[in-house]
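pasting input
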Amino acid sequence: QSALTQPRSVSGSPGQSVTISCTGTSSDVGGYNYVSWYQQHPGKAPKMIYAVTERPSGVPDRFSGSKSGNTASLTISGLQAEDEADYYCCSYAGSYSWVFGGGTRLTVL
Amino acid sequence: EVQLVESGGNLEQPGGSLRLSCVVSGFTFITYSMNWVRQAPGKGLEWVSFINGRGNTMYYADSVKGRFTISRDNAKNSLYLQMNSLRGEDTAVYYCVRDYQWLLSDWGQGTLVTVSS
């Protein structure tokens, strides 16, 4: 499968909101309700911060997600310095396979 | 607390083999499917392989099919990835990842595989 499409970079000032989009096809994002988002700080493992319609325990409610058709979105409100990281979307793609987005670098100005 | 600890990454020559291991704790291993996901240096994430809880269903990305074999030993709470016919493009950090309801929910810290002569 082809990678999901994410913007290469987004930026925002502390306190602002940013939204990261993730566009796939009817074979992945649009075909299954199994989209998840990951935050990765440099040198660290990815951490799931949003999945389907829920945040894992311990993830601030500043992180929220949505999906419409073949596009999923992650919104981070009230930006904080520690939110600066790479963000990846991921979708189940059927036949026990998964596909990731190319990643988005978030810069907090 | 869920923990996944990978090991076995190393420098290997093209055409060589490596076996990665992942020891897990904090959950009932046999009840979860597991995956390997990799990340080449400076690049994004790529799903590599899936295995179900009993270890009798396995799937692979096209990029590794026929060269990599995923397996597990539920008695040892361990997941493995046998990597044969290694290529330069297999150079990456390999993550052991727990699958919870079709979501790649919990990740190990990764182990680095470098394929170079």
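fyi Chain B touches chain A through 21 residues (CB under 8 Å).
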